[in-house]
């Protein structure tokens, strides 16, 4: 007998872990069919309930170069915990940041967008040029903690923010984080103040204890939020200058102060991994480890050219490790092209949260690369010099559209005085900071003139300009560059000016 026209079948609906919603229309004409459907729904509901949301932890080192870890080839720095993380997951060998400086890269991580799109292309600083004191990530940008919070996640952060510091609305707790402990900018900028939420709790900061205090807060956050889904952003102060650690690690590594700092950092990662395992969260937690740009003096570019602050690979290419037991096979190594905005898309994909559709998102999920060994989601990626796009590269070739930049300080043979030098009150080893003589990358090679082309597979240190031998490659990359570069002036200039006028 057909249903009356004004009678709708009853709807049964239940949540299914941020994926799809299961809805069944039950027809009263068949009791047997109804019982079958109810049994099916119950079984499927139990399956959904057994798959809680995925947690995401992002651990970001500061100024850790491509060659700064043992698992990336460093001969002296001992990093057994990070090496184990790589052995239990996958590491990428061609992961780049979009700019060789701190804040713009962090902006790309949190927004999934190139710095010229998200409007932060320079470092906010209370002690640099006056106009930089006003810089901040525009309020119109949507950041990871906001998206996770909307999906019901707890969100916490420790460490370096660098997305703006002058006004309360610039702070982490105004951008989606439930809690925050850290320094709002680099640890060589003055004043170095430690905040808990929006309150200064220490000044001057005892920098040698930062890694330990950050780690303790991270473990506390994980413990307190183990029963709910969480997003946690752990942005270490180290190994950014000035280098500092505690007596527990000082002069213990046998590899100088830098080696001591790396041992402290590595121990922190190990403690986070151990806490996740202790809480029984291993198989539902994606953990990503990376760095914001290439190294400072004393670090290692891993045989790449130059260091942070420049547009050679030593400034752009950094370590990237992802671990998710049961999802990412152990021991993987991939040469697939990746970039920092991909961390945004990858984190959301792991949690089943949709990326925003009202703006250009440059990042792509790396989950297929990490879980199945798929090829890169990018055919090309770009590198900045300040607000301008400067380079384009694919899996093999890199074109310097603008002349390459490279940081070099001091006069050979003379002790260099860092104009942003450390405050000795806050440091354990103020006179052991590294010098330009401790250059971290390759310093030789053909000039990086505008139009220079390098074969990164045959020549990873960018020594020989092969543009004259490969004009078709230059033309192909230049065409792709021009398509994206057409958007740069109006977006970058307009947003930066708007923030500075606030």
Outline the structure in words.
With 502 residues, the chain is α/β, with parallel strands linked by helices. The protein folds into two domains: 11-49; 55-393, Alkaline Phosphatase, subunit A (3-Layer(aba) Sandwich). It has helices at 31-49, 80-87, 102-111, 115-118, 144-150, 210-224, 256-278, 313-316, 341-351, 367-372, 471-485, 488-500, and strands at residues 11-14, 22-25, 55-61, 90-96, 154-159, 179-182, 194-196, 199-202, 230-235, 285-291, 320-323, 332-339, 381-385, 388-393, 397-400, 452-455. Strands 8-7-6-5-9-3-10-11-4-12 form a ten-stranded mixed beta sheet, sandwiched between helices. Helix 2 (80-87) packs across helix 7 (256-278), helix 3 (102-111) packs parallel to helix 9 (341-351) and helix 6 runs parallel beside helix 7. The longest helix has 23 residues, at 256-278. Residues 1-34, 40-49 and 491-502 have low confidence and may be disordered.
Q: What is the CA–CA distance across the termini?
A: 69 Å
What's the assembly state of these chains? single chain
Any idea how many domains?
A: 2
Write down the Rg.
24 Å
Low-pLDDT stretches are 1-34, 40-49, 491-502
The rough form would be described as: globular
Pattern of helices and strands: EEHEHEHHHEEEEHEHEHEEHHEEEEHH
